[in-house]
Description:
By secondary structure, the protein is mostly helical. It is 69% helix and 0% strand. The chain is built from eight helices and no strands. Helix 2 packs antiparallel against helix 3, helix 3 runs antiparallel to helix 5 and helix 7 packs antiparallel against helix 8. The longest helix is centred in the middle third of the chain and has 16 residues. The chain is globular, with a radius of gyration of 16 Å. It starts with a helix and ends with a helix.
Amino acid sequence: MGLFDLFKRDLSNDPDLTRLRDLIIVSASDSDYSLDENSVILNICRQEGIDIDKLQKLFKMDPEKIKDNYPTSMVEKSKYLRSLIEVMASDKVCYPQEIEALKSIAHNMGFTDEQTECEIKDYCKSIGKRGDAVLASYEENKNK
């Protein structure tokens, strides 16, 4: 592959861009992209080894042109979903729009609503006292 081939490379099928797109969709779905959500997204990038420069590329692309490129193993899918839940829960409030965005992405990965709800509840239990507020907010807003 020559140097110029790198510039022509189709990034729309990059799994990192799919993940970043989904994280941004969940965080921005309530029309309030907070610093807490931004911090969580950057932390997820560090943990997953995702180059922060890809965020810049994402904002220059049409998000609809980014192909769904999800993990194939259930363990990795669950980890992916939990990162989305972490973003949703970062401000301790689960807005109806965030829940809807999360469920839509989960469906695209093959999760049922029941499986998604179990992941949300498990995540809330894992974060202790703060999780109680998140779970209460989820329960209040999940059917709106």
